[in-house]
Automatic annotation (TrEMBL):
Keywords: Hydrolase
GO molecular function, one term: hydrolase activity
Source domain of life: Bacteria
The protein, known as: Glycosyl hydrolase
InterPro entries found in the cross-reference section: GH
Annotated Gene3D superfamilies: Glycosidases
Length: 417
């Protein structure tokens, strides 16, 4: 009697490559007079680069002008945008509470002035955000092009005006992640949250690496070259800059309790003057190739699709130049570099093996900055990388966990400095 053949192993999921969508005409103020035709032009340009998804944002005050009211017409606009992206062959992640976008913070009036509420700690403010996410989830549930629903963009940017503790952040995230799941229902989709780099590098920041790496369906990282002055500290063409997204992915993987948890490089970009325009194509290529060498990587989503038009006032200079397309819709050299590199990675379709050597990170919440640019651990990891090692990262409390190390494929540990 012959032995039946073993079932074929499940194929590795393909890496995802996309862009954060910034409307060319009017930036996110375009939501005030949403034009589906103009949005479709932008989305078709994005799809023309060979990208497979977009991340999209509505504005919180327009969606929820009153604590008890989510405007059906604004939700319909958002669903229409997801439809348009699908018509162009793009999948979509929707961010819910905006919140913070490109140096501007958008609060509904019911959180401000006479009605001021701390958005992280006030029970009624939390429930209002949960209502918004449940409503968006129900409206988007089952959409064939939906990747999932994210709580909002870099919500930890709001902590300066909304003081909060680590425990209160955990309660806030747990409540809103549950609301998003409830809204999406059985149709499912990813449920995620995002934070800017202070969550990883900021000493005693209330949004923690553990929250990023253990809550939601995957870990999102936003490894920006201006965080901790990385590009200015090391130089725009430096290995530290070119390996930054790779490093952020490996650092995030260390904090996860699930060794197989995916990591999404959800924002990275080439802001001038930190990355001069002439260096942007090489930066984009290096960032994608190096990040693709990380086994946990889910995908990379570039920031952003279109430059901010200079007719709009009061943006920091770097915000005007971050697009793959200029404000007239013309592709920039970085767009070609990104498109070509994505095509190469898809053609190769080879997922990297787990990293067998790991650098041990020993830090406390008050010394987290050692793992950021300028920190001793960061510099040691970068030195090893330049010497030819491809180091993973392991937290010191896991160094004696043989099952955990085996699950990650780690056979050698190097003490961090």
């Amino acid at each position: 009697m012959s032995t039946p053949p073993s079932p074929a192993p499940e194929p590795e999921p393909a890496l995802r490559f996309g862009v954060n969508y910034t409307p060319r005409r009017g930036w996110f103020h375009a939501w005030h007079d949403f034009d589906p035709g103009l949005a479709r032009e932008d989305l078709a340009q994005i799809a023309g680069l060979g990208l497979d998804h977009v991340r999209v944002f509505h504005l919180w005050p327009l969606l929820q002008p009153n604590r008890a009211v989510v405007r059906a017409s604004a939700v319909d606009q958002l669903v229409r945008l997801v439809d348009l992206a699908g018509e162009c062959g793009l999948d979509v992640l929707v961010d819910g509470v905006q919140g913070h976008l490109s140096s501007f913070d958008f609060y509904p009036e019911w959180t401000r002035g006479w009605h001021h509420r701390n958005v992280f700690t006030d029970p009624e403010a939390i429930e209002a955000q949960a209502l918004l996410l449940r409503t968006l989830g129900r409206a988007l549930s089952g959409h064939p092009r939906l990747i999932g629903l994210q709580l909002g963009n870099e919500l930890n940017n709001l902590v300066e005006h909304n003081p909060v503790t680590v425990a209160e952040v955990d309660h806030y995230l747990d409540t809103l992640l549950g609301a998003a799941r409830h809204g999406l229902g059985e149709a499912g989709g990813l449920v995620t949250h995002s934070a800017y780099d202070a969550a990883w590098y900021g000493d005693d920041h209330p949004f923690t690496p553990e929250a990023s790496a253990r809550k939601g369906d995957l870990t999102t990282v936003h490894p920006w070259v201006f965080s901790a002055d990385c590009a200015r500290r090391y130089g725009p063409r430096s290995p530290e800059v070119h390996y930054l997204a790779e490093y952020g992915t490996e650092l995030a993987a260390a904090y996860a309790t699930d060794p197989a948890r995916p990591v999404w490089v959800q924002e990275t970009g080439a802001p001038e003057p930190h990355i001069p325009a002439a260096d942007a194509p090489d930066f984009a290529r290096a960032t994608l190739l190096n990040a693709a060498g990380c086994a946990p990587l889910w995908g990379v989503t570039w920031w952003c699709s279109h430059d901010v038009d200079r007719s709009l006032a009061d943006f920091p200079e770097l915000e005007y130049t971050l697009g793959l397309f200029d404000s007239h819709g013309r592709p920039k050299p970085i767009a070609e570099a990104l498109s070509t590199t994505v095509a190469e990675l898809r053609t190769a379709a080879v997922r990297p093996a787990p990293r067998t050597t790991a650098l041990v990170l020993d830090c406390t919440p008050s010394t987290r900055s050692v793992s950021g640019p300028g920190g001793a651990f960061f510099d040691t990891w970068m030195r090893l990388r330049q010497e030819g090692t491809r180091p993973a990262v392991v937290l010191t409390e896991r160094v004696k966990d043989a099952a955990y190390l085996a699950a990650r494929g780690i056979t050698e540990l190097i003490e961090g400095k």
